Structure formats: C-alpha cells, structure tokens
C-alpha cells in the first residue's frame, strides 16, 4: 500500500572543510546496505553543508558574527546575561534568530555560518548523488527556526533542488465545491519537519531519506529562494515593540511638519 517512509542515514561521520559531501553520504548509504530509489528526497542538515563548504570561521564574539551576517534587525530583546536575543533578516532573506550563526558542536573560538547559497548547495548535492546512485532524487537543506505565535522550534528548508517547493491548490475546489483562493502548501518545509523527527538535534544523524512522495522534478527548480516573502507583502516586518516605536516616531515627525505640538510629547517611548 502507498505510504510515507522516513529514516536517518547512519555513519556519515564528522565533516571537515573540503569534504565531498555527496560522496560521504553515498558511502554511508552503501555501508548501511541502502539504495536510493527514484523519487527519494535526501534531507540534509545545513550544519554539515556549512562545514564542508568551509563556513566555520574564527569568532571570539558570536554577537559580532551575527551582526556581520544580518542585513536587518527585525526584533531585539535583552537577556538576563546582559546580551540580547536578536531576530534578524539574513542576506538570503531568511528571518531567524541569530542569523543562523551556530556556536554548538564547533571548536572553541569559532562559529558556523549558514551556507552562502543554500539552493546552490542543494543543486551540487543532488548532482553528485544522482550521478553516483543513478536515481532520480531530490535534495533539501534544512535549518532550525522559531515561529511567530508558537512556542518551540522546527526544521525548515533553506535550500532545495529537484524538489517541488510548493503545492498550489488555488483555482481548485474544496470538498464542498467552493473555490480555493489561498491554499499554497510549503512542501519543502513539511518534508524538512518530517525528516527532523528521525534526525534529531544531538544524535549525530544529519541526513535523512524521505520516500513515498511525488515531489521530485527533472529540473532543479526555483529552490527555497522562491518562498522568501518580499517586503511589500510582509505584514509582520518588525517586532511589536519595534513597530510601535517606528509608528510613534513617524507620528512625531508628522506633527512637527504640521507645526503642531505632538500628542503625548512626554509619554514614554514604549507602551505601558
């Protein structure tokens, strides 16, 4: 019967700069006696992609690395240790905590940055694995994100190749015959989250295989870059406090331009 299978690939091992990641994964699959099949999707944690691509960099201060990787601060909140938790936009267009800069499971005095071009990384991996296996497979590169309005984190796709990125149901009809106008499913994010159930965060299992979905494509496709929401359609471009402060400042400027005394001129800058 048709169904979905998801399993982790054991034995990939420690990855160092310059490694051929596709070859490491192919060898691990071979040692495990596993064979890739047409339609399989390889889901790969961005950490090992970054390590292979030499994105491990010296950084005594992780905060400096976050600043360097960020193009825009979305929200910042002070922490009890005197630092700040920053939600930022990366140069890829991703909005995430700390710009994806990772200081866990790396040598002291170093941090790991996201891949420069995650979609390009996925294309390179797909080409290598398609070549070695002879199978029509797709690749998704993932990282961990927090989510607005929800506690907890989940893995999302940051790069993809030869995988259908979304399922666009607009123009179709629901079970009652009503037209669907807003139903677009982010398939690569759902696959990323499913794969994380078997990869985990600390088990040394950065690669998973997802089998049973009809999502693999002949062309490399637009990748995850096509999922990045532009500023013109982003209703939540700032954190709540930052949006309030920006609106308050705009009101003051408008009042000054009109020659009026600002309402609440001596009010505190933040909401009660």
TrEMBL record:
The keyword Cell division does not apply. Residues 13-212 form the Coenzyme F420:L-glutamate ligase-like domain. Keywords: GTP-binding, Ligase, Magnesium, Manganese, Metal-binding, Nucleotide-binding, Potassium. One of its GO terms (molecular function) is coenzyme F420-0:L-glutamate ligase activity. The keyword Amino-acid biosynthesis does not apply. Its EC number is 6.3.2.31. InterPro entries: F420-0_g-glutamyl_ligase, F420-0_gamma-glut_ligase-dom. It holds the Pfam family F420_ligase. This is Coenzyme F420-0:L-glutamate ligase.
């Amino acid at each position: 019967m048709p169904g979905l299978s998801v399993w982790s690939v054991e034995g990939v091992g420690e990855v160092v700069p310059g490694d051929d990641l596709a070859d490491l994964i192919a060898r691990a699959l071979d040692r495990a006696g596993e064979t890739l099949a047409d339609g399989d999707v390889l889901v790969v944690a961005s950490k090992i992609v970054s390590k292979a691509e030499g994105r491990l960099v010296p950084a005594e201060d992780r905060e400096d690395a976050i600043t360097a990787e960020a193009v825009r601060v979305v929200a910042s909140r002070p922490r009890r240790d005197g630092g700040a938790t920053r939600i930022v936009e990366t140069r890829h267009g991703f909005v995430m905590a700390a710009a994806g800069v990772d200081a866990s499971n790396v040598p002291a005095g170093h941090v790991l940055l996201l891949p420069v071009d995650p979609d390009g990384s996925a294309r390179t991996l797909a080409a290598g694995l398609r070549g070695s296996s002879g199978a029509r497979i797709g690749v998704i590169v993932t990282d961990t994100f927090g989510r607005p309005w929800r506690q907890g984190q989940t893995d999302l796709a940051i790069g993809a190749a030869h995988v259908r990125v979304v399922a666009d149901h607009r123009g179709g009809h629901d079970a009652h015959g009503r037209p669907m106008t807003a139903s677009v499913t982010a398939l690569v994010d759902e696959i990323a989250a499913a794969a994380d159930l078997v990869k985990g965060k600390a088990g040394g299992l950065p690669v998973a295989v997802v089998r049973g979905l009809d999502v693999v494509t002949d062309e490399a496709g637009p990748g995850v870059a096509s999922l990045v929401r532009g500023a013109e359609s982003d209703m939540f471009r700032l954190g709540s406090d930052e949006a309030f402060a920006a609106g308050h400042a705009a009101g003051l400027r408008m009042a000054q331009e009109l020659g009026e005394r600002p309402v609440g001129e001596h009010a505190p800058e933040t909401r009660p």
